[in-house]
Design a protein that fits this description.
- Helix 5 crosses helix 8.
- This protein has one domain: Vaccinia Virus protein VP39 (Rossmann fold, 3-Layer(aba) Sandwich), CATH 3.40.50.150.
- It is an alpha/beta fold.
- The N and C termini lie far apart (49 Å).
- Strands 2-1-3-4-6-5 form a six-stranded mixed sheet, with helices on both faces.
- The protein is 34% helix and 18% strand.
- The protein contains eight helices and six strands, in the order αααβαββαβαααββ.
- Bound molecules: S-adenosylmethionine.
- The site of S-adenosylmethionine has 20 residues, from helix 3 and helix 7.
């Protein structure tokens, strides 16, 4: 399981502007942590056990590298490194029984879920979680998400990099650059999650953040 040391976090904090300009790919370089590795590191610290990573992206990296394979990654597009097992065409129905996972993650992808499907996917996350399980959602600050999407598209066009996984897939009209904090809290609450808390990514100068919500444990039956 990969975890950044405190020393690495200090280096990452100091070098954030450089990393924000140069490290959008998955590889860590020059002793610095890439932005994807960094968000995986933050999220992994909240995962309770067997985990479903929704919108896992290329190589199913979060589950394989950051959770030692203890989970499933699913996505709508056959990215490099994914198999049939990872592909789910209709994400409004997850192919798993109720109460299968202890955590469900939506990492940098809620904005890429078509608006009309967001509530249905979060309801599926709730269904497949055990009572007492948690959901973890990451989303950058709005202005940052706009800048990052534009920067990555510019690099891919001009420098022939291939950072933009969503460009590779082809985006839907109902996707957005970002989802606001209010929308995340409102949709998580509507799906049934409670005690929603927010954590900023300090080593990204608090420009990125994650939200953790909880599926309540079953209420004890009332005495009659
Ligand atoms: C910015 S990428 C993030 C990938 C990965 N989670 C990461 O953090 O590197 C957004 C991901 O959302 C996925 N996605 C697109 N439509 C989706 C949907 N309806 N439900 C879940 N994920 C979806 C994309 O295929 C893509 O892998």
């Amino acid at each position: 399981m990969r975890r950044r040391s405190v020393g690495q976090q200090v280096v990452d904090f100091v070098t954030f502007p450089v990393r924000a300009l140069a490290l959008h790919g998955h590889e860590d370089r020059f002793g610095l942590t890439s932005l994807p590795s960094e968000r995986f590191d933050y999220v992994s610290r909240h995962v309770l056990g067997y985990c479903l990573d929704v919108g896992c992206g290329r190589q199913n990296r979060f589950v394989l590298e950051f959770l030692d394979g203890n989970g499933k990654g699913i996505d709508v597009y056959p990215y490099e490194g994914l198999t049939e097992e990872n592909l789910v065409e209709d994400m409004t129905h997850f192919p798993f029984p109720c109460e299968t996972f202890r955590s469900v993650t939506f990492i940098a992808n809620l904005n890429h879920i078509p608006r009309s499907a967001r509530d249905a996917e979060l309801a599926e996350a709730y269904r497949v979680l055990v009572p007492g399980g948690n959901i973890i959602v990451t989303m950058g600050r709005p202005l940052v998400e706009i800048l990052v999407h534009k920067l990555v598209a510019f690099y891919d066009r001009r420098l022939h990099t291939d950072f933009d996984v969503d460009g590779e897939r082809g985006m839907d009209d109902q996707e957005d650059y970002y989802v606001t904090r209010d929308e995340i809290v409102q949709r998580l609450t509507a799906a049934g999650f409670r005690d929603i808390a927010r954590q900023s990514f300090r080593t990204q100068w608090c420009l990125n953040q994650l939200f953790v919500g909880w599926k309540p444990r079953a209420e004890p039956a009332a005495n009659v």
